[in-house]
Specification:
single chain; 399 residues; 15 helices; 0% strand; globular
Length: 399
């Protein structure tokens, strides 16, 4: 079994996890905006998410000789360690619920703000719990100011969302509820002769009212005119779920509550991640197959046959699952070495998601100066937060 023993190695894992975990939500959002049903996307994602855990377990978990205190992955599958296995599987359940919920929240609240709020809730609750579970191996005088930075960032993120919503309302003020321009109105305020070819190009420009209407017509989850409170409720629920999965995994690998029989070694991170991913996969399949026939949020009905035949964007959904699976695995590998409280620094993934949101989806394009100032302040605070949390990392002694 391969064990990360250096602080530098742990930080490298966390940085790579940050990139992966910040990118896969952008891919899922892209598919929803192109009209693919979220149930189809999540089923594909779940397959490769589990595959990533199996690959990690059979490679890193099998490197080297198995030792009594640190058995290899396959050796540990046959040991009596069910109390900690259940903790790992519980972590997988809440992560699956959180990921599934955010898939719908992204459409209502936006990729950037959803990630800011869920990540901040995860840090504030999850990191505090992990600090005490880890025996306070992280430097409290550094760790908790970092948590404070995340709290400031979530306030700024909420302000960004509010400001951007006002900007969008102003852009859409000349449109009726069905998305058509009201008679006699003009976005530019000038009398212009319409050139159909030119108008088509204008509709494709990020940040314009025409772009917002065109996006609404293409996407699978219709959001214009709906109460944004729906998205905020989904976002806060997802954040609560995310705040629990890392402490559950921590308990699974370190058994702080002494649930294992005496003499039975703790779950190694690879075995715990395997069981974690199994429960995540099973719940995702059950819920999404149910949503095919009983969809939520007024989505159209589908079927298993329709899902199997839907190859539109499937390769992207499979890639998203791999990125999320390897990202979670790297986060846990880094957390086992440096402490799970410090590993929660990957919750600064809104830095990456916001980058993709701006580049791929044109979020905040043609927004007001007020929105840009708030957005820059939020990103700056997140950069400070991730640096502070990583600086707080301690070093766990290997058994």
């Amino acid at each position: 079994m391969y064990i990360i023993e250096s602080k530098e190695g742990a930080i490298a894992c966390m940085m790579l996890a940050l990139l992966f975990l910040g990118t896969w939500p952008a891919i899922m959002t892209l598919l929803e905006r192109r009209g693919r049903l979220p149930q189809h996307t999540y089923l594909d994602y779940s397959i490769t998410n589990l595959l990533a855990a199996v690959i990690i377990a059979l490679t890193f978990g099998q490197i080297g000789e198995s030792k009594p205190g640190s058995p290899n992955f396959i050796t540990q599958l046959y040991q009596d360690n069910w109390p900690c296995v259940l903790f790992a599987m519980g972590g997988g359940v809440v992560l699956s619920l959180g990921n599934l919920t955010t898939q719908y929240a992204w459409a209502f609240v936006g990729l950037s703000v959803t990630e800011v709020i869920t990540s901040s809730i995860t840090v504030v609750i999850g990191t505090t719990v992990n600090y005490f579970l880890d025996g306070r191996i992280n430097k409290a005088e550094i760790l908790f100011p970092g948590v404070g930075c995340f709290l400031i960032a979530v306030c700024l993120g909420s302000a960004v969302h509010s400001s951007n919503a006002i900007d969008n309302e102003e852009k859409l003020s000349d449109f009726s509820n069905d998305g058509t321009r009201e008679k006699g109105s003009n976005v530019s305020g000038k009398n212009e002769t319409k050139d159909p070819e030119k108008d088509s190009v204008e509709k494709a420009k990020f940040g314009t009212a025409d772009f917002l209407i065109e996006l609404e017509n293409k996407r699978s989850i219709k959001v214009l005119g709906k109460n944004t409170l729906i998205g905020l409720v989904l976002t806060f629920f997802a954040g609560a779920c995310f705040s629990l999965f890392s402490p559950a995994f921590n308990l699974a690998t370190n058994d702080q509550w002494h649930t294992m029989k005496e003499g039975v070694p703790h779950l190694v991170v690879y075995t715990a991640f395997f069981h974690f991913s199994i429960s995540c996969f099973v719940l995702a399949i059950i819920l999404n197959v149910t949503f095919l026939y009983y969809p939520v949020l007024n989505l159209p009905k589908s079927s298993l046959n329709a899902y199997v035949q839907d190859w539109n964007g499937r390769h992207w959904a499979l890639l998203a699952g791999l990125l999320c699976g390897f990202g979670n695995g790297l986060q846990f590998m880094g957390g086992q070495a440096a402490g799970y409280a410090a590993a929660d620094a990957v919750q600064a993934l809104p830095l990456v998601s916001t980058f993709w949101g701006i580049v791929l989806f044109g979020e905040y394009r043609k927004s007001s100066k007020r929105t840009y100032i708030l957005l820059g302040s939020m990103l700056f605070m997140f950069i400070v937060a991730v640096g502070v949390l990583m600086a707080s990392s301690g070093h766990r002694k290997t058994p």
